[in-house]
Amino acid sequence: MINLLFNFLGDIKRNYKTLILAFIMAAAFWIVVSIQVFPTIETEVSGIAIEAQPTEYMLQNNLEIVEDFTELVNIRIEGKRFDISGLKAEDFYAAIDLSSVRSAGKYSLPLNVSAKSNIDCTIREQDPFKVTLTIDEIISKEFVIEGTAPDISLPEGYYAGDITASPEKITVTGSSSIINKITKIEARSGYHGEIIESHQTNSEIIIYGENGSRILADNLKLSPEKVTVDIPIYRQKELPLNIVINYPPNFDIDSLKYEIQPSSIIVAAPGNLIDNLSKLDIGTINLSDISLNKSTYFTIPLPEGYKNLSGNNTVKIEWNTENYGTLNIPVRTENITITNAPDNFDVSLTTRNVNFTIVGPSSVLAGISENDFIVTANLLGVSLREGSQDVTITAQLKGENQSCWISGEYKVTINATQKDAG
Predict the structure, then answer these.
(1) Which of 288, 292, 287, 294 is nearest to 243 (CA)?
(2) Cα gap 99→209, rounded to integer Å
(3) Residues in contact with 29: Cβ distance below 8 Å, sequence separation at least 6, in sequence order
(4) SS3 call for 385
């Protein structure tokens, strides 16, 4: 083995010139092969899709790109044939540089193209170098919805109440340039034809801008997406107005004339609740509260769900008291009766007399005297204590079919003394 090694080294020493020449020829051959097999070439790559990734600033400030990009990028690249000959559009990124975007507006921004993997190539040409795009601010705004039902019809005797939307409000999200132009949102019922009962229907949501122009909602987000329309239907009827007068049993109520203004109103009620109603009681008044030359006013009360279609909310009662007058008559204590006094008290009247005001036809007043009164101090339910206190008394005129009445309320002072227990 040692001899072989020494022989090989001896051969190299004797033939070194030949070896050097062989090495030079091999190197030259490698250079020629490299130039032919792995040359530097240029090629085109077409149809690279454009990508746009919003920056953190844009996300924090609700800035979004309006356009959908359909434009494609074409490039010319240089590199070794082995490296670039099979490259396609899918091997490259084309990204818009959005770092300069700070507000809504129109921008011309650079377009950066790069290879997706570690490919050794140089981009020599690029078309386009920039793209123009619109940045918009995305906002959300709440609007009140107006419910409508333009295609319904009502038979005679029916009334449609306030048509409303459910829910009453809607939130619209989208471009601020569009949102800020919205003036009204309508929920239009899809119901068509005659209607006699209340309905809740589906609706078409219509968005309006200035001058009543419609705004397409394709690029807007609605929350909620569906809105119903409530159509309340009422039966309507004209009802005479009536008042209730509290009066003593012996009073001739037909002798008291009065006029109610207005005498009737048109009332709408849900369902058929008013079909069997012939009049509308608006209030109660005591006979003693009626005064000469003074009208009485009532606010028209209606149950929840009823509607006053006439618009008259107040009623005036004019008392027809022509040829009526007033008369003041004092009644002495001995003509006042105390009733329902407790057994453990002695009760006496401190008041000496009471001046009553009588209202009625002047011809009748002339014949009234102190002896025509029935006056009672009823102590039932009164918490008596020792000493003096005021109690309410009731008074009425004697006889049947009286046409006069006692006006006002009256009190007397009594004195109570507790009896001995024995």
Answers:
(1) 287
(2) 34
(3) none
(4) coil
The whole-angstrom separation of Cα 3 and Cα 132 is 81
Continuous H helices in 228-385: 362-365
Measured CA to CA, the distance from residue 76 to residue 116 in angstroms comes to 16
- Residue 30's contacts (CB-CB under 8 Å, 6 or more residues apart) are none
Check residue 22 and give its pLDDT.
58
Q: Kindly state the DSSP code that residue 362 receives in the 8-state scheme.
A: H
Phi-psi domain of 93 (left: phi exceeds 0; alpha: psi -120 through 50; beta: other) = beta
The rounded radius of gyration (Å) of the Cα atoms in the chain is 52
Measured between alpha carbons, how far is 227 from 166 in angstroms, rounded to an integer? 6
Ramachandran category for residue 387: left, alpha or beta (phi over 0 → left; psi -120 to 50 → alpha): left
Contact 170, 145 (CB under 8 A): yes
pLDDT single digits (tens) 278-310: 999 999 999 999 988 899 999 999 988 889 999
For residue 412, which phi and psi values (nearest 5 degrees)?
Answer: -130, 160
Q: How many angstroms separate the Cα of 46 from the Cα of each of 68, 76, 109, 117, 295? A: 19, 9, 20, 18, 95
Burial class (CB in 10 A: 0-12, 13-18, 19+), 260: middle
Write the DSSP assignment of 41-92 as a string of letters: EEEEEEEEEEE----HHHHHTTEEE-PPP--EEEEEEEEEHHHHTT--GGGE
Contact assessment for residue 206 and residue 171, using Cβ atoms and an 8 Å cutoff? no
Q: How is residue 116 annotated by DSSP?
A: S
Low-confidence ranges of the chain (pLDDT < 50): none
DSSP codes of every residue in 277-314 = ---EEEEEEEGGG--TT--EEEEPP--TT-EESS---E
- Which strand (E) or helix (H) includes residue 3? helix 2-14
Token code pair at residue 81: 């044939």
The answer to pTM > 0.70 is: no
CA pair distance 43, 124, nearest whole angstrom:
10
**Residue 38 contacts residue 82 (beta carbons within 8 Å):** yes
Q: Which residues pair with 171 in a beta bridge?
A: 142, 223
Sequence-ordered list of residues with C-beta below 8 angstroms from that of 245, at least 6 positions apart, any chain: 253, 256, 284, 285, 286, 287
